[in-house]
Amino acid sequence: MKKKRAIKLVEEKLPKKRFEHSIRVAETAVKMAELFSGEADKVELAGILHDYSKYDDLALMYQQVTKYELDSELLAYNSEILHGPVAAAVMKHEHGIEDEEVLQAIFNHTTGSKQMTLTEKIIFVADYIEPGRKQPGVDDIRTMIFDEKKLDRAIYEISKRTVMYLLKNDKCIYPRTIECLNYYNLEK
Ligand code: DGI
Ligand code: FE
Ligand code: FE
Ligand code: FE
Q1: Residues 6 or more apart whose Cβ sits within 8 Å of residue 153
Q2: Which CATH number is 3-187 given?
């Protein structure tokens, strides 16, 4: 899929704020690709499309999990966990995206995963640090990336902060989130 078509898809589907977030994730991801010798075209496309399913009706998402034979464990979770895997399946089956790296980056953008490809890593981090993000301490992660160039360290820090936030708010933690946390703790 060409960039222009991806932008049009997302612009027509998502609210303006979420569309603008998607563009900033893509822009941040392209900058990171330059820094870490990643593939700019891939991260740009994944960045534009990563939140495509974010506001889909939960019932529709559950239907898509079944239709596209995604892990049935997903059915126990809400749209926060579902929107990445569902968007990846929709892009593959309904919009003809074949690049597995792009699809994986969309799939895992919320939870991360162990042994991520460079494209996946970049999208996972760019989603967290794009210039519109205001989480406390997000500048520490930006420094880790743009000054220290420590990608795996940044992934660990993001996972850790996400898990701490989830525990504090009595949310369920998806197994892949923990897998990511542990893997990049050892890798960092
Ligand atoms: O879609 P975005 O808001 O751009 O960002 P995202 O896809 O990274 O989603 C972030 C949300 O997902 C954030 O509120 C935390 C939540 N999240 C991440 N990992 C888990 C999770 N929620 C649950 N319940 N369990 C997780 O493991
Ligand atoms: Fe998301
Ligand atoms: Fe994220
Ligand atoms: Fe996002």
Answers
A1: 144, 184, 188
A2: 1.10.3210.10
Q: How far apart are CA 156 and CA 185, in angstroms?
A: 6
Look at ligand 1, atom 12, and give the residue with the nearest C-alpha: 80
CB of 166 closer than 6 A to ligand 1? yes
Give the chain's largest Cα–Cα span: 44
Print pLDDT tens along the chain (188 aa): 899 999 999 999 999 999 999 999 999 999 999 999 999 999 999 999 999 999 999 999 999 999 999 999 999 999 999 999 999 999 999 999 999 999 999 999 999 999 999 999 999 999 999 999 999 999 999 999 999 999 999 999 999 999 999 999 999 999 999 999 999 999 98
Is the beta carbon of 54 within 6 A of some atom in ligand 1? Answer: yes
Indicate whether residue 176 lines ligand 1 (CB < 6 A): no
- Checking ipTM against 0.85, whether it exceeds it is yes
